[in-house]
Amino acid sequence: MEAEWLILINAILACTMVATSLMVFLSRQQLHETNKRSNIQIEQLRIEIRGLYDAAHGLGEKLHRYEKRVRSMEEWRINLDAEDTRSGTYFRASSMAQRGADAKQLVKNLGINPAEANLIAALNRTVQTPSYGRLN
Questions:
Q1: What's the farthest any 2 CA atoms get from each other in the chain?
Q2: Phi and psi torsions of 43, nearest 5°
Q3: Which pTM does this prediction carry?
Q4: CA–CA separation, 51 vs 60, rounded Å?
Q5: Does residue 81 register a pLDDT over 70?
Q6: Which end of the chain is more exposed for a tag (fewer CB within 10 A), N or C?
Q7: Confidence class of residue 91 from pLDDT cuts 50, 70 and 90?
């Protein structure tokens, strides 16, 4: 009877060991599959991150080009404004000279340099007293 109990206990222990081994094997299989899926997901994330990085880098370069273009346009506008200011000043100087202002008044009132003021005054004197049609 004691031998029967020993056989029974050995059988139970053997079944328990087989069941435990099977559970360990299945757990390892699940872990391996989970690890495999995780590695695939990690690789997909790496690809997405690389794409985002490349896109951000491309946007940075585009932004840099746009900033450069804006600076160029601002410089162009400043130069254009300066030309408009000079043209406006010369127009006012010409108008004043046509109304009789001399070079000193142009320099004083408009801040243009004396050579420009003399030229504008001289040109407007010529316009007011044309030389054609006269007999000397």
A1: 161
A2: -65, -40
A3: 0.42
A4: 14
A5: no
A6: C
A7: confident
- Residue 96 contacts residue 105 (beta carbons within 8 Å): yes
Q: Which amino acid is at 85?
A: T
Cβ neighbours around 72 below 10 Å, total: 10
Q: Cβ(123)–Cβ(106) under 8 Å?
A: no
Distance of CA 49 to the CA centre of its chain: 21
Helix extents (H) in the chain: 2-98, 103-110, 114-128
Is 61:68 a contact under the CB 8 Å cutoff? no
Q: What is the DSSP letter of 129?
A: S
How does DSSP classify residue 15?
H
DSSP class of residue 99 equals: T
CA distance 133 to 121: 22
